[in-house]
Amino acid sequence: MTARILIVDDVPANTRLLEAKLSAEYYQIATAQDGFEALRLANGWQPDLILLDVMMPDMDGYETCRRLKAEAATHHIPVVMVTALGEPSERLRGLESGADDFLTKPVEYDTLLARVKSLVRLKRMLDEWRVRGETARALGLTLEAPGIPSVAGARALVVDDWDLGAQLVQDALAREGVLPGRAAGEAEAMALTAAIPFDLIVLSLSMANDDPLRLASRLRAQDSTHDIPLLLIAEPEQRERILRGFDLGANDWLVRPVDENELRVRARNQIRRKFYQDRLRADLGQALEMALTDPLTGFYNQRYLMRHLRGLMSAGLPNGVSVLMLDVDHFKSVNDRFGHPVGDKALKAVAETLRGRTRVFDSIARYGGEEFVVVMPGASPVDARNAAERLRASVEAMPFQAGPNVMHTITISIGAAYTNKRETTPEQILQAADAAMYRAKAGGRNRVEFAEDFDGKA
Ligand SMILES: [Mg+2]
């Protein structure tokens, strides 16, 4: 997986070293020697990751990071702070300025590459959601832009067979407002994650009884836990296991003794990212819903109908498919006499009646203003005619109150068509049903006509 990486360091020798290592892994590299240049390049070049030196003249790494994270154009780009300072307080400052990760000089390259890979993978996924969300927003399909959510109320699962270690992590998380749960082993962790939607899993790599890496791989393999951030805690000498954990999809790690503040900030970053991801996904789901359904009736819209029919018909239904085209009679006069709100109410009432009188595997779409289409897979011409007659009679019998003490009878005209020919297109069968519907109108309305010349016999 190639990606763009921006390296920021005021010492050219440092930059060259990192550049050589990362280029060898086929990453595309740009370099900046100060924070201002970094901001400019981040904006224009849109890297997938920024490696940011902390100690720089004029604007240091913390301030650069803070500005990157404050800008809409760059806030989503992961930042890894690189520093010679190993002090926990410095690490904390970096994380609090919004850095996604932290590396100390001299840089260990396999550690660096593991983190780069993991952050780039995550960014790619978020980018995809973001682009889809932006498309939806551009189409006017979603409501609000995502902000930075609070982590209070998030649920975390701490997996460790060492009581004291687990307690320390749980206490630290609780101070962030996170609700921590505890599992003492693999079986318990699997059972709990199946029951509760966690926002973070903190997994100890030092467990004696179970293999934590096997648990990590099971959590990654399962749909329900696949996207939950996984934070590893390990002994300093367990570097190999940490790297294996990253290969399995872990998102971050900490070494013992755990610095409480660092744990809190890393947990917070992971949970925020999860919330951001959830939010983008929810936006997309909502956009899809809005893109495919008619808000008045809740029925599918024409766009969905065409896709659904195409799918059904190309699957070559052995028993064919019937399509009913329904049109409310004299609908314009309902609007003219009682006003548009009553017209809408009439359409809703008709929709309710249709919904209650069709089979579960039939699909109903609002095709146009007062036109509906019912798609009946596997329904023979006789089934279709019976269904159409039933729908017609139900709507006619439906009591509809158009105003105080004003009852109004609504009727519909229906055209039906059937095909079992694979080469028939959705457009053709809809046209045939439409033509039959016009004959029903011409024949006096409130009646059913069948597209006889089209039912597969012609
Ligand atoms: Mg420096």
Helices and strands, with pairings:
Elements: E1 4-8, H1 12-24, E2 28-32, H2 35-45, E3 49-53, H3 61-70, E4 79-83, H4 88-96, E5 101-104, H5 109-138, E6 155-159, H6 163-174, E7 179-183, H7 186-195, E8 200-204, H8 212-221, E9 230-234, H9 239-247, E10 252-255, H10 260-292, H11 302-314, E11 321-328, H12 331-338, H13 340-356, E12 363-366, E13 371-377, H14 381-397, E14 401-403, E15 406-407, E16 412-419, H15 426-442, E17 448-450
Parallel strand pairs: 1-2, 1-3, 3-4, 4-5, 6-7, 6-8, 8-9, 9-10, 16-17
Antiparallel strand pairs: 11-13, 11-16, 12-13, 14-15
This protein binds magnesium ion (MG).
Largest sheet: 5 strands, parallel
Helix-strand category:
alpha/beta
Q: How big is the Rg? A: 31 Å
Total strand segments: 17
N- to C-terminal distance = 56 Å
The shape, in one word, is: elongated
Helix content: 40-55%
As a percent range, the share of strand residues is 15-25%
The distinct ligands, each listed once, are:
magnesium ion
Describe this structure in words.
The chain has 458 residues and is an alpha/beta fold. It folds into three domains: 1-107, Rossmann fold; 141-288, Response regulator (Rossmann fold, 3-Layer(aba) Sandwich), CATH 3.40.50; 302-450, Reverse transcriptase/Diguanylate cyclase domain (Alpha-Beta Plaits, 2-Layer Sandwich). It has 15 helices and 17 strands. Strands 2-1-3-4-5 form a five-stranded parallel beta sheet, sandwiched between helices. The chain starts with a strand and ends in an 8-residue tail after the last strand. 38% of the residues are buried. The mean pLDDT is 88. Bound molecules: magnesium ion.
